[in-house]
Write a structure and sequence with these properties.
The chain has a single domain (about 5-260), classed as TIM Barrel (Alpha-Beta Barrel), CATH 3.20.20. It contains nine helices and eight strands. It has helices at about 20-30, 45-55, 75-85, 105-125, 135-145, 160-165, 185-195, 230-240, 245-260, and strands spanning about 5-10, 30-35, 60, 90-100, 125-130, 150-155, 170-175, 200. Helix 3 (about 75-85) runs parallel beside helix 4 and helix 8 crosses helix 9. It binds zinc ion (ZN).
C-alpha cells in the first residue's frame, strides 16, 4: 500500500466527531502521518492530547487562525511560546491573513500574525500560513517580521509569480483536494510549475472537500474526511503526470524536511 502524509488537517475539530475511528480509517487507507493544526487558544489542549495519544502518527501545530484572531486573550504569546517549548517537535500554525472574510478585520488579524512570525523565527520552528486574497499584506508582514527558514503556504491558491517570490524565502506549497474541482484548474497549472522538492499534500479536513470522484470516505454535511488523502494524492499525481508512489514519496520526504524528523 502507498503511504501518504497529510501536511495539514484539523483532527481536533468537533465537526469530525470522535477522532479515534477517524484516525483508524486514515491508517487503514494508507496515511502514515499528519500535521494537526490548532486554530485558537481553545483547541490547543485538544491538539496536545491527540499528539500525546498518537506520537508516531501526529505532529502538533499550535497557533491562532486569522478567522480566530479576535479570540486571542491577553498574554497569548507567552502561553503559545511555553507550549512550543514543551513540545520540541511542534510547529506553529495555523496562522495567517485573510481579506476574503469581513471579520475579524485585517487590523485585528495582522498583529496576531506578525507576533506568530516573530515567535516562529525566535524558536526556529516552521510555520503554516493561511493567505487568502491578501498577498500584498503578506509581503508587508514579511517585511516587518521575516518568516522562519521553512514555512508552508497551506491550500496554496496563489499565482506562479507569487510562488516564485516565496520560494527563495523557504516556502513549501501545500495542495488540497478542493483544487481538484475543474473550475480550479489554474491551481493545478501552478503546481505543475513548482519545484518538486517544495510540494506538500493536505486534506485540511474537515474543510476543503474534494470533488466527488476523490471522496472515498464520505461524511455528513459535506465535511472532508482526512482518509480521503490517498484519493486526492492519486488525482494530483495523475494531473502532474507522475506515478502515485512517486508523489507520495516526494510529499512525505518534503513534509519531513520542512517540519523535521
Ligand atoms: Zn486549515
Amino acid at each position: 500500500m502507498i503511504a501518504w502524509t497529510d501536511a495539514h488537517n484539523h483532527l481536533q475539530d468537533p465537526r469530525l466527531g470522535d477522532p479515534a475511528p477517524i484516525i483508524a480509517s486514515m491508517k487503514l487507507a494508507g496515511v502514515d502521518r499528519c500535521i494537526v493544526n490548532a486554530t485558537r487558544e481553545d483547541d490547543w489542549s485538544a491538539v496536545e492530547n491527540l499528539a500525546r495519544a498518537e506520537p508516531d502518527f501526529i505532529r502538533p501545530a499550535f497557533g491562532i487562525h486569522p478567522w480566530q484572531a479576535h479570540t486571542a486573550s491577553p498574554g497569548w504569546q507567552t502561553r503559545l511560546a511555553a507550549l512550543l517549548e514543551k513540545h520540541p517537535q511542534a510547529s506553529l500554525g495555523e496562522c495567517g491573513i485573510d481579506s476574503w472574510v469581513d471579520a475579524p478585520s485585517l487590523a485585528i488579524q495582522l498583529p496576531v500574525f506578525i507576533d506568530q512570525l516573530r515567535l516562529a523565527r525566535q524558536l526556529g520552528r516552521p510555520i503554516t500560513i493561511h493567505s487568502l486574497k491578501a498577498w500584498g499584506v503578506l509581503f508587508d508582514a514579511f517585511a516587518e517580521a521575516s518568516p522562519p527558514d521553512r514555512f508552508v503556504m497551506h491550500s496554496y491558491g496563489g499565482s506562479i509569480e507569487t510562488a516564485r517570490r516565496l520560494l527563495p524565502l523557504g516556502a513549501y506549497f501545500s495542495f488540497s483536494g478542493h483544487f481538484l474541482h475543474p473550475r480550479k484548474s489554474a491551481v493545478l497549472e501552478v503546481f505543475r510549475q513548482l519545484p518538486h522538492d517544495r510540494i506538500l499534500l493536505e486534506t485540511d479536513a474537515p474543510d476543503m472537500l474534494p470533488p466527488p470522484e476523490s471522496i472515498t470516505h464520505p461524511l455528513p454535511e459535506n465535511h472532508n474526511h482526512p482518509a480521503n488523502l490517498p484519493a486526492i494524492g492519486q488525482a494530483l499525481a495523475a494531473a502532474l503526470g507522475m506515478p502515485a508512489t512517486e508523489l507520495a514519496d516526494i510529499t512525505r520526504d518534503n513534509t519531513r524536511r520542512c517540519f523535521g524528523g
